[in-house]
Amino acid sequence: MGDVIGMALGGTALVFFCCSAYVLTTRKDMSFLGGMLMAGIVVVLIGMVANIFLQLSALHLAISAVFILISSGAILYETSNIIHGGETNYIRATVSLYVSLYNIFVSLLSILGFASRD
Questions:
Q1: Whether pTM exceeds 0.70
Q2: How many whole angstroms separate alpha carbon 16 and alpha carbon 63?
Q3: Where are the alpha helices (DSSP H) in 1-118?
Q4: Domain segments of the chain: what residues?
Q5: How would you class 27 by CB atoms within 10 Å of its CB: exposed for 0-12, middle for 13-18, buried for 19 or more?
Q6: Handedness of CA 69, 71, 73, 75 (dihedral sign)
Q7: How far apart are CA 116 and CA 113, in angstroms?
């Protein structure tokens, strides 16, 4: 179990640093991701509600994988907003980045925990 937690932590750190480094080095404006992220969140929420009733482990894994992608996009979006001055409330930006990190960690933990079952 400790290996799974360590791998999830390492994967989360890798995703965060890669996304942040990409935005910091390219200085691209990622504001175009806003609409896609919102649509993705709605789709994932519908999938979560459906999985409450269906109880499909494959759907759970798919939701976790898509949630990792959405959270990675949120890191790109929020970091870009911070760099380009679109976000002046730094407490909100910090909380948003923290929530994205938490979501990536929990989703990776779910996927790796499922993969390590006997």
A1: yes
A2: 19
A3: 2-26, 33-54, 57-83, 90-115
A4: 2-115
A5: exposed
A6: negative
A7: 5
Residue 118 pLDDT class (50, 70, 90 cuts): low
Residue with tokens 């919102």: 38
For residue 68, which of 40, 94, 92, 47 has the smallest C-alpha distance?
A: 40
C-alpha distances in angstroms, 36 versus 60, 69, 73, 82?
21, 11, 9, 19
Rg value, the chain, Cα: 15
Looking at the predicted structure, is the pLDDT value of residue 65 above 70?
yes
Determine the average pLDDT of the residues in 50-76: 95
